[in-house]
Design goal:
By secondary structure, the chain is mostly helical. The protein has one domain: Up-down Bundle (Four Helix Bundle (Hemerythrin (Met), subunit A)), CATH 1.20.120. 79% of the residues lie in helices and 0% in strands. It contains five helices and no strands. Helix 1 packs antiparallel against helix 4 and helix 4 runs antiparallel to helix 5. The radius of gyration is 18 Å and the shape is globular. It starts with a helix and ends in a 6-residue tail after the last helix.
Length: 180
């Protein structure tokens, strides 16, 4: 039985490692495509929807922390799985937007410009990094490996929270420059 568990762990660790590399690479490749696909005018609303998704994710992450501190494991699990689901939905929506629309240049001037780019760059870098941590945290939680889950969450949670909060901040900073 222990051998089966070790083999399953290896299999899922390999899958997580592959996904943690493939997801950012595929997103980068799709974003790099210069020829945009016409998916319709509805895609121009996706950044606004993404900001809502990031806001809800932030709320769920905070709720998940609250619930686990209250030892309400069921509510914690539900909040975190919903946050994970929203994160996945965000990823699909983000790719659809950038596949069908040109990137919006930031028009801010003065001190706000380096602040915006610092937030944007740190958000992008950490959004790539957090994929591996979140996938492992979810796997460990769902497979009942709570000690490993807690160890990964020490890193996953603050990074994920930062990414979701900065996603909303970056959205509000660039929103005035979106073309409709």
């Amino acid at each position: 039985m222990v051998t089966l568990q070790i083999e399953q762990n290896k299999k899922y660790n390999r899958l997580i490692n592959v996904l943690a590399v493939v997801i950012p690479v595929v997103v980068a490749v799709l974003l790099g495509i210069r020829q945009k696909v016409d998916l319709g005018a509805w895609t121009t609303y996706l950044p606004h929807i993404n900001a809502v998704i990031n806001s809800l994710t932030t709320g769920l992450l905070l709720a998940g922390l609250y619930f686990i501190k209250q030892k309400n494991i069921s509510a914690h699990r539900n909040a975190m799985l919903l946050a994970f689901t929203l994160g996945s939905l965000f990823l699909v929506s983000y790719v659809l937007y950038h596949l069908s629309n040109d990137s919006t240049p930031f028009g801010g001037q003065g001190i706000v410009r380096p602040v915006y780019y610092f937030l944007l760059i740190s958000h992008i870098i950490l959004s790539v990094v957090v994929v591996w941590f979140v996938l492992r945290a979810v796997y460990f939680a769902l497979s009942g490996q709570i000690a490993k889950h807690k160890a990964v969450v020490r890193w996953a949670y603050p990074i994920w929270l930062y990414v979701s909060i900065t996603g909303v901040i970056v959205y509000f900073m660039i929103a005035p420059y979106y073309r409709h």
